[in-house]
Amino acid sequence: MADEGDEPFGAAYFDRLYRTPGTAVYTQAQVDHLASGIVGLMGWWGLPVARVLDLGAGTGMWKDWLARARPDVAYVGVDVSAHACERYGHVHADIATWRHDERYDLIVCHGVFGYLDDEACARAVENLACMARGVLFFHVSTEEDVRRGTLDTERSDGSARRRPAAFYRDLLREWFHPIGAGLWLSASAPETLLELERAGWG
Question: Is 149 helix (H, G, I), strand (E, B) or coil?
């Protein structure tokens, strides 16, 4: 195995952005709130949550929440970091080239696309669409977030790309319907949302 100091997403990266309280992007408590809210909404909409795919699984915060709150759920974590995969038990893969045969009720894609080039983003979205049968949580910072000051640049990775939000919306809308709050419904998901629960897709 290569020296972790040479790996862009090695131990130092995770220490700074996930394991050190003063510089961590998110805490376990914050992810717990997020996971509880998303899974709760899916329950409200009558959508099953039997299989979860976590892309950019990192330190396994979603895995830990599911183990405590929903141990019945089958979880797969994927990360491009050899360090994270070895330490937290994820599948070592790149979403731009990796596609699982299984389909998932919930796909979590947190921060991954900021590290992909434009062509890789397009391939990755198609891979997501082929694996989705329910809800996608898609989270990535954009140029607008920087301009408005809603992104804490002190607690984010400056090497991640900040594209216009329209770039991602255009890619996702070919395969998913926007719900709001970073949630996108697969075009193949059951019709359970009321009109005003949708984000203007009619």
Answer: coil
